[in-house]
Design a protein that fits this description.
Blueprint (H helix, E strand, L loop, with lengths): L1 H9 L7 E4 L2 E7 L1 H19 L5 E6 L3 H9 L6 E7 L14 E3 L9 E9 L3 H11 L5 E9 L12 E5 L5 E2 L15 E4 L5
Parallel strand pairs: 3-4, 3-6, 6-7, 7-8
Antiparallel strand pairs: 1-2, 2-10, 4-5, 9-10
Bound molecules: inosinic acid and magnesium ion (MG).
Length: about 200
Amino acid sequence: MESDRQILLNGMTDIGEIVGEPPYRFRRYLRAEDINKRVQEIAQKIRADYANRNPIFVGVLNGSFIFLADLLRNLAIPCEMDFIKISSYEKAIKSSGAVLMKKDLDADVANRHVVLVEDIVDTGGSVRFLFDHFMKKKPASLAIATLFLKPEVFQIKSHLDYVGFEIPNRFVVGYGLDYGQQWRHLPDLYVLMDEPA
Ligand code: IMP
Ligand code: MG
């Protein structure tokens, strides 16, 4: 573990393919450069769709903060942003299904073009909750962007307007995603090696 810590502190993930300790060891799965390339592609699509609409991007805390930041820096169109916070997995690798509002929006999104920005869609429970929650605020339009999708689990793909990567049904961390609030800072994406019983 000591060597992993050193590697992380130095930002030299190239020589440390694995982080964490059993049974929560994670292996690097997707490189930052590949993530960043895909984020740029999504930004291009959104730019084409939202030019002259002054959209408001709503990041779903905490996981989406890095994706949202990278996305907005690649947009190059006038826009606004805000955050919303809902309950997450806490310290678990399986979704509980129950969703709680922890921090609602500050912005008034009535008659605005809203793009919800998620880190990952797993069961889809969060997205469904957020979709209903936002429709009540009467936006001019509502779209959902997620960087990762576990399509084996989530069946209602048509609700998602922008998807970065479809990934297998495995638990991942890094690039904003956590396990027990750890590992969000990793620039690459890592996958849990052994699914604990
Ligand atoms: P859903 O409601 O089951 O779709 O889960 C969505 C939320 O659970 C995401 O926004 C994440 O915060 C969290 N989550 C789902 N899968 C993972 C994962 O593999 N790693 C880390 N967090 C995850
Ligand atoms: Mg999340």
